[in-house]
Structure to design on (803 residues):
């Protein structure tokens, strides 16, 4: 509706000329950005000038009319001017719809980063992903238009026959909607594209800042974009008293508990729209406002009720929703939009239905497809290669991977045995829904460490700088800095025994890449991904090698400081960021180099798209990378970790404090 | 071994009946507790640095909660093992054995440490394992 359909094509041309390969990273960063800023600024000025020109031309035509006495040249010029008017309106519509003083301010770029932290191709890569996701949005719109309208029948009333597809399609449309962000420039999918199994789509970001830039450039979060795939199958976070363990939730720190919606994944989808570093709304009611303006509003009302948007938004709502969260002008209120209690309740319902709809999409076969080679193998329709089978045996045996990444297999095989066990009665998800601290080193490239100074809205994401430590689940249980309020104070006591723990993500689709870049591994052609919560690991080979040798090659250094004669990630692993509660199931597995490769080969059988094409995996328009070795992939971007200050009191001084104390 | 395997299968089947999604039935099962937990190899020093060591031993699979703690009681006096280091590990329901590894931080260089080991379930309940007092010396 307020989505200018013509913007995409205009942008494509402009940015295809500007596109850089990821090989061109890191050259005089600040200069690059100033240049980019001028370029984008110049474009806006040009648009405005065109609008002015078009306005005067229209006035002229109106006054004088189009005379038959005019020459053909004049007619052509008039047509040209009229076309320009239309084009400019289309180009400007997105800006115009959000016009306000705040929108103008938000055009300023926040760049607290030293040279080399932001990738030099960041702006064109952002625009590339935005073009790609608009293609996917178009497909979702077409799917909706082709959908046979469901009919509400029965008790309880049910949208018969096509209700499932209706809510899944609604979630899909939401996922690709850039209007669900302060500056109308960030859809959920910006950080979660299908060709990367709904994780981070920009190779240079995966190599450098690891967290994706949000709606206000360039605030960014602190962790990698977690895959959507199979996240809906995680249960509501619970503490199992018998086992003494937490299960479930969503996000690396499990902060999306699902405590109210009873659905961790639906609650997960509610967080990014109001995350200051992501889509940036200062109030959850902004989701309702923007959805009420969406082209697909009729589908929302069809699924969730005609009266969903009967909300009287006060006049200042637009301005508030155009202002990124954390802005000083908004004060400290969690609900700066002054709605009546009745309207607030309706807005809350829309917000809940936003989460539930996206959950429906993520659980659908569009996302969680169960279409991998491994699924075919379970069905007896695929014969694992020798290396893949060896990898499966190692996954279950010597590698001990399936003590957490449960694969549903019934046996542990010896080296000379073939796997003849029957398929498990459940579909294996390759996770135990638990959490573990694998002892990842601190990644000094993480964008979070540099956002110490306030932006133009007076907000700083991380005033603690390198005093920040990511304690994962432990920090969440304390309702601590950088996480979210915990809804359960009886869990707080368990924080010290969960410090450093991150969610055990499903291993499914860990190896998914765009079709034209067939692997994650150098020499490729490969698609550069990032692994674990802080993106320190850059290839699956490194991932398996880390589990295999973390303790064997442990050095008391931080990243970038491995001793001479050693190679980081090969025969030197820096100290863990959080030394508490490190999972010692792994760390010295005794796998050979070949055995590591075989586990990687097995992990690659978990990629969906074998039994049938994986939807929307075909949209990557970036560049595959080639060359090098998976063992040292990305090592050229290692930077020396600065001397670390002690863990900040705001994190490590919050009761109950970590035990032992974290340096 | 078979007993270890049957129990999770039963738990999984019951779970799938009780829960609406297949996910809920895939939570790590609490397996049968072993009658006796015996150390079959070690304990021994996997690695000793001036300020850090890893103690490693293998036992039969103790069963019980899927997360266990390896525990090292240590000190510089063999009669006063008043310090404790513990590290979590995950049991593999399909394995007949379990390897415990415990990290010891904050050690002093060129110092002899005496230690015994034990293991517990996640809630702190002991597996009933005791080892003889052994020792190692950190390098300089």
């Amino acid at each position: 509706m307020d989505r200018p359909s013509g913007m995409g094509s205009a942008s494509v041309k402009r940015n295809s000329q500007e596109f850089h390969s990821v090989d061109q990273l890191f050259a005089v960063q600040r200069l690059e950005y100033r240049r980019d800023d001028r370029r984008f600024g110049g474009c806006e000025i040009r648009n405005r000038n065109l609008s002015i020109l078009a306005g005067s031309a229209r006035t002229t035509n109106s006054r004088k009319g189009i005379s038959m006495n005019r020459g053909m040249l004049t007619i052509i010029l008039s047509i040209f001017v009229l076309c320009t008017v239309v084009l400019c309106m289309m180009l400007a519509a997105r800006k115009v719809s959000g016009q306000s003083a705040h929108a103008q301010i938000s055009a300023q770029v926040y760049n607290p980063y030293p040279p080399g932290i932001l990738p030099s191709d960041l702006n064109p890569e952002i625009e590339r992903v935005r073009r790609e996701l608009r293609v996917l949005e178009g497909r979702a719109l077409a799917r909706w238009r082709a959908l046979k309208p469901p009919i509400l029948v029965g008790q309880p009333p049910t949208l018969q026959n096509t209700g499932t597809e209706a809510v899944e399609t609604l979630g899909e449309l939401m996922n690709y909607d850039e209007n669900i962000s302060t500056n109308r420039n960030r859809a959920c999918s910006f950080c979660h594209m299908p060709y990367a199994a709904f994780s981070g789509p920009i190779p240079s970001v995966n190599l450098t800042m690891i967290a994706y830039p949000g709606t206000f450039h360039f605030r960014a979060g602190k962790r990698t974009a977690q895959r959507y795939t199979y996240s809906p199958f995680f249960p509501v976070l619970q503490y199992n008293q018998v086992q003494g363990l937490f299960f479930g939730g969503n996000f690396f720190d499990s902060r999306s508990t699902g405590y109210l919606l009873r659905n961790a994944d639906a609650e997960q989808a509610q967080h990014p729209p109001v995350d200051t570093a992501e889509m940036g709304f200062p109030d959850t009611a902004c989701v309702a406002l923007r959805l009420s303006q969406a082209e697909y509003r009729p589908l929302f009302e069809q699924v969730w009720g005609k009266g969903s948007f009967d909300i009287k938004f006060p006049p200042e709502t637009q301005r508030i929703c155009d202002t990124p969260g954390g802005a000083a002008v908004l004060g400290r209120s969690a609900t700066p939009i002054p709605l009546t209690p009745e309207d607030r309740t309706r807005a809350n319902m829309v917000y809940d239905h936003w989460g539930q709809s996206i959950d429906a999409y993520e659980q659908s076969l569009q996302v969680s497809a169960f279409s991998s080679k491994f699924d075919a193998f379970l069905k007896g329709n695929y014969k694992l290669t020798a290396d893949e089978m060896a990898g499966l045996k190692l996954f279950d045996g010597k590698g001990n991977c399936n003590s957490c990444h449960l694969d549903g297999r019934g046996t542990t095989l010896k080296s000379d045995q073939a796997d003849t066990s029957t398929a498990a009665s459940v579909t294996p998800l390759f996770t135990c829904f638990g959490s573990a601290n694998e002892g990842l080193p601190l990644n000094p490239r993480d964008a979070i460490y540099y956002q110490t100074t306030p932006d133009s809205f007076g907000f700083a994401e991380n005033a603690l700088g390198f005093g920040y430590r990511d304690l994962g689940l432990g920090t969440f249980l304390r309702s601590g800095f950088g996480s979210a309020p915990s809804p359960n104070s009886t869990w707080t006591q368990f924080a010290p025994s969960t410090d450093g723990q991150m969610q055990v993500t499903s291993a499914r689709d860990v190896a998914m890449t765009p079709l034209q870049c067939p692997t994650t591994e150098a020499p490729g052609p490969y698609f550069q991904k990032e692994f674990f919560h802080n993106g320190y690991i850059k290839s699956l080979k490194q991932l398996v090698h880390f589990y295999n040798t973390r303790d064997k090659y442990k050095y008391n250094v931080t990243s970038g400081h491995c001793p001479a004669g050693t190679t980081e990630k090969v025969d030197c692993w820096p100290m863990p960021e959080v030394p508490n509660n490190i999972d010692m199931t792994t760390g010295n597995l005794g796998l050979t180099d070949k055995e590591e490769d075989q586990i990687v080969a097995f992990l690659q059988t978990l990629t969906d798209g074998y039994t049938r094409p994986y939807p929307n995996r075909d949209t990557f328009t970036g560049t595959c990378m080639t060359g090098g070795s998976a063992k040292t992939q990305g090592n050229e971007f290692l930077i020396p970790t600065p001397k670390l200050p002690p863990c900040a009191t705001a994190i490590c001084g919050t009761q109950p404090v970590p035990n032992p104390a974290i340096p | 071994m078979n007993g270890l395997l049957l129990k999770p299968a039963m738990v999984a089947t019951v779970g799938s009946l009780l829960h609406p999604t297949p996910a809920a039935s895939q939570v790590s099962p609490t397996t049968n507790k072993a009658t006796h937990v015996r150390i079959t190899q070690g304990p021994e020093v996997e690695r000793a640095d001036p300020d850090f060591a890893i103690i490693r031993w293998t036992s039969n699979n103790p069963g019980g909660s899927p997360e266990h703690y390896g525990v090292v009681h240590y000190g510089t006096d063999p009669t006063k093992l008043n310090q404790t280091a513990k590290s979590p590990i995950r049991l593999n329901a399909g394995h007949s054995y379990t390897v415990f590894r415990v990290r010891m931080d904050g050690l002093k260089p060129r110092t002899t440490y005496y230690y015994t080991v034990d293991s517990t379930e996640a809630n702190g309940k002991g597996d009933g394992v005791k080892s003889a007092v052994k020792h190692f010396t950190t390098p300089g």
